[in-house]
Amino acid sequence: MITQPAGASPIRSHSTRNEPHVTLDCDALLFDMDGTLVDSTEVVERHWGMWAARHGIDLAEVLRVSHGRPTLETLRLVAPHLATIDEAAALDAGEAGDSEGLRPVRGAAELLASLPPDRWAVVTSAGRALATRRLRGASVPVPDVLVTSDDVSPGKPNPKGYMEAARRLGAAIRRSIVIEDAPVGIDAGRAAGAIVIGVTTTFPSLSNCDYVIPDLRAIRVVESGAAGVRLEIGA
Q: Does the annotation mark 32 as catalytic?
């Protein structure tokens, strides 16, 4: 089911909101990674869990704020006294070397296979090494345009990552669609000026986006070419 959150801004659409499907034209699709393309829940909870137990920190609090943020920013929020580059690098290295439990989000493989490679990108708060290994570990293709925390700073909700991805693709950000599963990423896409679609793969409800869908099976490429990509979004 496709829904529109209360207070969402009007979207440039070729159908009415009362119809079961919405058709959108865009220049590019800009995907978040964790929770949007890759289900990395097992890996993330395993490594943050070991870290939290080692330092006597509440894991639930860590997971509440960590999604969509660079590791160092999460450390600054939950344990400022431990927020060092070395500590963040050690956590990232542990996750990068662990692929057990990684899997693609439902619909990811089919959607990406239907998109031209110059029409989509991944924007993630992870570093490049971790992002590349995580995508491959979940059998998700590594895109030609991959914007990571090694490329832009600060991380989400700052919009720079999404703006940089659109620039590299030669796409207008206002004709780009950001697909996100976390509030900080949705805020980044909104601040960039993109159309924002939320997927409820991580959080049961999302706001501040134009449309909300359960997973990527709700997006179908109708056609693509020099003029851009036409999508049908719905159940």
A: yes
